[in-house]
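Sample log: Innexin.
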Amino acid sequence: IPIDEELPDEESGRRNKDILYYQWVPFILLFQAFLFYFPRIVWRTLNVKSGIDLVNLVDAAVKYEQVEQYESRDRIMSYLIINIERYISARAHLIRHRIDKQYSWTRRFFHLFFFCSNRHYGNYLVIVYFLVKLLWLVNALAQLFLLNAILGNDYYLFGFEVIEKLFKNQRWTENRHFPKVTYWYV
């Protein structure tokens, strides 16, 4: 109930003004958490198909920066060089000796929409990286509109309303979306 409206005294009048979505908040938040985790799942799934273990290489590079002993640093650097060289030489070998075979549906999808995207061309990870970043952006914007649809109208403009009130030297802490005063019937 907005702060400028009268509170109804009868039970039936109060029931008509109840907010009924509070019980769904944990489920909505859980669904949103999954939606924010989804791009990570996509990245992990497509990253594995690149032919290089990026997680392992990044961990080795971080260890390289942290280790102070020369022998350990040299061994880690050799490991990094060998793995990157192995990836590059395997890619070159596959390009020279390409064998036609039946492609999976995911590979056909990438060939259809990203004709130059292929781990054999060397740009697979770059394309996947930008696709996942685009997925993060679309996900964030879609969730703003999803919350607006669930909570009611004008929530996506809440931040702009606060900034507008600040520029007009109005009290921005009182608003219709997040009331500071509540009333509890006992």
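Observation: The two ends are 17 Å apart (CA to CA).
Observation: Residues 92 and 163 are 56 Å apart (CA to CA).
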